[in-house]
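Students often ask why we bother encoding 3D structure as a string. The short answer is that it lets us treat folding as translation between two languages. Here is a chain of 101 residues written in the first language.
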Amino acid sequence: MRERGVRKKLNGVVVGTSMEKTAMVLVNRLKKHKTYTKLTKRYFKYLVHDPQNRCQIGDKVKIIESRPISKRKRWQLIEIIEKSEKGNLDNGSDQTLEQVT
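And here it is in the second language, the structure alphabet:
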């Protein structure tokens, strides 16, 4: 079988998971102005295919370009680089409240 062409890979942060098997990922980039050479932040939100619904808000993820899956979904989740601590803190606070009462 032939290997596919070079596909883009990006890193970003999950900002939304309200859809089934889909996550919204925010990717930040630095762009240099041609004349003034000032760096400016550019960001874009990508809809990413997450077939197992593993992503949570705040996770750092790696995504790869793929064939069109739906109208706006053209990226797939490769891996979760770092899980967010937000979910862990919520579980811990519930346990401490139960222990106090």
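Translate back mentally: Strands lie at 9-16, 22-32, 39-49, 60-65, 73-82. Keep this in mind for the problem set.
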